[in-house]
Amino acid sequence: MSDLKVRTIRLEPMRVACVRAVSETPERDAWEKLRTWASSNGLLDDFEKHPVFGFNNPNPSPDRKVYGYEFWIRVDPCVESEGEIEIKEFTGGLYAVAKCKLQGDPSGSVVEVWRKLWDWVQASDKHRWRRTHELEQCQDPQAAEEDIVLDLYLPIEERAESPG
User: Fold this and answer.
1) Distance (Å, rounded) from C-alpha 14 to C-alpha 95?
2) What is the Cα–Cα distance from 42 to 61, expressed in whole angstroms?
3) What is the CA radius of gyration of the chain?
4) Residues 6-158, CATH architecture
5) Could you give phi then psi for residue 25, rounded to 5 degrees?
6) Burial readout 98-120 (b: 16 or more C-beta within 10 A, e: otherwise)
7) Which of 27, 74, 100, 153 is deepest in the core (most CB within 10 A)?
């Protein structure tokens, strides 16, 4: 696992606008819905102020081609639900984060990098997995597919110290 660089990041709570698609291409379909809404509201001009996260919902499975994907974008407190755009409160938390390219990453496919990140957390003396959403953050959601770089966020918590 020496080729995997992992950092820990605490995401602060945030209000997010979300959209979900269930199809054979849910990432593309959900992104198109979010992109249309977010660009018309000027949210895609600043990815630091309005980061975009996504995750499978529901997860894919080997026996079916259809699965779901949900995208979130941070929004200001005054933004309300509208059409297919739902507003949620994200509680934040601690995450182990690894970077990978969507295509052609020397560390492996996105699935392989997720597996390496999971193995990193399982081998950690300091952290353990925390049951909540695993997130993918696209550094530039408007990049061409071959140029997309993702930060994979695995939720973690500190292990309790053993009484000694």
Assistant:
1) 15
2) 36
3) 16
4) Alpha-Beta Barrel (3.20)
5) -135, 60
6) bbbbbeebebeebeebbebbeeb
7) 100
Extents of the domains making up the chain: 6-158
HSE of 11, CA atoms in CB hemisphere, 13 A? 28
- The structure tokens 């957390």 sit at 121
154 near 130, Cβ under 8 Å? no
pTM as predicted: 0.90
In eight-state DSSP terms, residue 60 is P
Residue 46 token pair: 């600043």
DSSP string, 30-44: HHHHHHHHHHHTTGG
pLDDT tens by residue, 40-59: 999 999 999 999 999 999 98
